Amino acid sequence: MINNFDRMLSSEDVMRRRASFLQRIHIDGPLLIILLTLAAGSLFVLYSASGKNWDLLSKQATSFGIGLVSMFIIAQLEPRFMARWVPLAYLTGVLLLVVVDVMGHNAMGATRWINIPGVIRFQPSEFMKIIMPATLAWYLSKRTLPPDLKHVAISLVLIGVPFILIVRQPDLGTALLILASGAFVLFMGGLRWRWIISVIAAAVPVAVAMWFFVMHDYQKQRVLTFLDPESDPLGTGWNIIQSKAAIGSGGVFGKGWLLGTQSPLDFLPESHTDFIIAVLGEEFGLVGICMLLIVYLLLIGRGLVITAQAQTLFGKLLAGSLTMTFFVYVFVNIGMVSGLLPVVGVPLPFISYGGTSLVTLLSAFGVLMSIHTHRKWIAQV
Amino acid sequence: MSQPIRLKDHEKDARLVRNRVVVGAVAIMLLVCVLIARLYYLQVIQYDYHSTLSENNRVHVQPIPPTRGLIFDRNGVIIADNRPSFSLTMTRERAGKWPEVLDAIVEVLGLTADDRALFEKRMKQGRRPFEPVPILFELSEDQIARIAVNQFRLPGVEVAAQLVRHYPQGAHFAHSVGYVGRINEKELKTLDPVNYSGTHHIGKTGVERFYEDALHGQVGYEEVETNARGRVLRVLKRTDPIPGKDIVLGLDIKLQEAAELALGGRRGAIVALDPRSGEVLAMVSQPSFDPNLFVTGIGFQAYADLRDSIDRPLFNRVLRGLYPPGSTIKPAVAIAGLDSGVVTAGSRVFDPGYYQLPNYDHKYRNWNRTGDGWVDLDLAIMRSNDTYFYDLAHKMGIDRLSTYMNKFGLGQRVSLDMFEESSGLMPTRQWKRATRRQAWFPGETLILGIGQGYMQTTPLQMAQATALIASKGKWFRPHLAKTIEGQPPVDENPIEDIVLRDPSDWAKVTHGMEQVMHNARGTARAAATGAQYRIAGKSGTAQVVAIKQGEKYDRNKVQERHRDHALFVGFAPADDPKIVVSVMIENGEAGGRVAAPVMRQIMDAWLLDANGQLKTEFAPATVAQEKAQ
């Protein structure tokens, strides 16, 4: 205990020496540098993927700016403050999802948006991407770890309610990501391995049941297409065949920036949103994708360091879950575009075009920065 | 030791989370390795495959069909050209549910269910994916406008401009030049798929068919960059097509029209040849039809009418019509007789009005029942004396007769460049044994001598047999094309010239044929009245229905369609032949009376100028020289 304290003091000394402007405004330098790198890379790839569309580029840059502001604001909030308000935020989020559900049924179709014209327009499911792990982290941080069966059950209910509401929108991709973010809290909280294994074992019959009772035709079609893209080369298999052709034709070094053909000739659908990695793969090759993966790994590595160094259990669980979920985004997106996984609507974090996901992601990293920069000795500096 | 109050052990929690972070980090590293392995597989191992796929996506090779060669008559009048025409095309892959789009087209253009059936048939003939298939041709301005207005309802439907074959002379050359039509499935299997990749039409009959390779040309292509919707963004590379070769025919439109006029509305066939070259100057098979109907696809009803007509307008009588040559064969038989030595110019036969074989009762009748008395070669030809030729044929025997007739082109295809010419039939002992399982009877030889019996010839063969007498045995295969892109057609399988032991025999027979036209007792003397030039000719009659022994042909008892065919062959000027004419008039009855005047009109049209005088180029050499001096 004393040894440990010494070690903490010594690291505190280091911290004190480095206590700088950035730390005082609760910004984590390494994270910020990596995020800015990704933003620059995103605009670079988007310019080509969107067909040199400056309009789209400036919108993305604006979204990035909004996201950075949001990140900065959230980074100022103390983790303890967050923990206090999380339950209310969770209830609000669930309520909004119910509203969306009702509205969707009234509108005789799918909707994912809350839209008060002129005031605000957002997806409650995006909001849940941060609230979900925060809620579980709040709940588990007050219990003894590893969680016992009762607490796990309550946790599953907390995850299950928004999950089902989002599945009903229907938005299976987001629902699964929210499920994952909650599950990672449990994982970080030391969920017993035998339970993890039994859940994985139970997943097979559940998946079968989902196939027959929950999934929509278009979702089933995606899975079928994933299993055999050639079965419908002009229909649903088209996306995968074309994205694989784009990536594969890039080779090791790629065709060169703006020299890709699949995207500008419209063979690659969704080339600036979900399938943007195909453009990167075509124009920059294996080398380009590996460089992006390295940047992602640096970001994830920093997230895991923050998790390990977090002082509160709430901070540890939340930071760990957010970081792991971030990796799931990356893995699912690249896996999907390269034909490893079925097509689910998951954007490539920070690279795909889309303001909502950008703001959510940067907010999540704001939470990480808050957890890292509000550690006690820093506050004393 | 029990602990009633469970205190939170922060150190333990921190350790637990730290362990999980390590597990998570390891899992992440493993999964990143999976991703990289997958990308390595796609980008390195499968690079060639995906690279090709991507390039094929981008670059499409579009064929550019060559322009079909033009066809002219000998004076440069256009017989077949290409006109821009708007057609409606549909691309199956872009139309979605194409049968529904077809319904919409029928509705928009106000067409019938028959048209729709035709569209559907054409759609099914589409070949390559993403190929626009033409389904309706020669759109009117109104139709184009209607399509444009309703374009939103017609995905994959486009109005395309293309060159379509046109025959400005209509029915005049339907049987000689033929026509092009849409490539059908059977032809598709035998065609060069590359060269015909942009071509929708192919020669179906006549010159269009025979010279298809020359007329078609060589396909060109362009490599174009297309987007996913098939729109061409730019041309990367272009290889121009090589247009088809132009063909100048030996046919003369004025002579053709004169021949048709001479034939009047009667069913029949006429061939006019230049005996010095084998060029066909006119070729008439009546009734005829408008070849333009077939270019863009003839309607069911219109086709049924043509096909089922009792007059058989689609039937090419010149090339495929088989008739017993009748007496028109006699000049050739006479040559055979002279050359084989069974007769001489002076040898005579007594004609009592019939001929009898020794030890047979059967009487082979002369057409003139009263008989012509003592008959020599000249008289036999002039009077078309059957008895003389029965005797001649009997003396020659079937074997020699058949061999000689083959030399005149009978029983074989004589033309150089005519599609689907019939070879006719010149019987032999072997032929009869093979087909009838019977021995040859001497009586059958006799009737061959007057062009009856098993013998069957086409009007073209008779023209050629006559041309051989005019050219004194020099063989030129009759041909329609005078030049192909300036080059005369080459006969790669020439027929041996007829060389007589005594070449003066040609003149003896020609003299007899002149008597037919110009002697007071000649069978066609009326047709030569007032001629500016000497004509050598021979009449003939082809029986349609056999007449029983002892029965007399009575025209009033015979139905019109069962009456004899009138035949006539001849050439002029007799001493320096420039034109050979073969005339066949179905159910025309009398060769000398009915067919000979037709021949005369054609010869006049060819040999005389506007003032009714012999054209200088056709005048006898001596006269021309006198004029020159």
UniProtKB/TrEMBL annotation, chain B:
Gene3D superfamilies: DD-peptidase/beta-lactamase superfamily, Penicillin-binding protein 2a (Domain 2), Penicillin-binding protein 2a, domain 3
Pathway the protein takes part in: Cell wall biogenesis; peptidoglycan biosynthesis
Alphabetically ordered keywords of this record: Carboxypeptidase, Cell inner membrane, Cell membrane, Cell shape, Cell wall biogenesis/degradation, Hydrolase, Membrane, Peptidoglycan synthesis, Protease, Transmembrane, Transmembrane helix
Penicillin-binding protein transpeptidase domain boundaries: 268-604
Topological relation to the membrane, as annotated: Single-pass membrane protein
Positions of transmembrane segments: 21-41
Keyword Iron-sulfur: no
Top-level taxon: Bacteria
An example molecular function term from Gene Ontology annotations: peptidoglycan L,D-transpeptidase activity
Main location: membrane
GO cellular component terms listed in the entry, alphabetical order: plasma membrane
InterPro entries linked to this entry: Beta-lactam/transpept (IPR050515), Beta-lactam/transpept-like (IPR012338), PBP_dimer (IPR005311), PBP_dimer_sf (IPR036138), PCN-bd_Tpept (IPR001460), Penicillin-binding_protein_2 (IPR017790)
Pfam families: PBP_dimer (PF03717), Transpeptidase (PF00905)
GO annotation (BP), single: proteolysis
EC id: 3.4.16.4
Top EC class, one word: hydrolase
Catalytic reaction list: Preferential cleavage: (Ac)2-L-Lys-D-Ala-|-D-Ala. Also transpeptidation of peptidyl-alanyl moieties that are N-acyl substituents of D-alanine
Family affiliation: Belongs to the transpeptidase family. MrdA subfamily.
Protein name as catalogued: Peptidoglycan D,D-transpeptidase MrdA
UniProt organism field: Pseudomonas putida
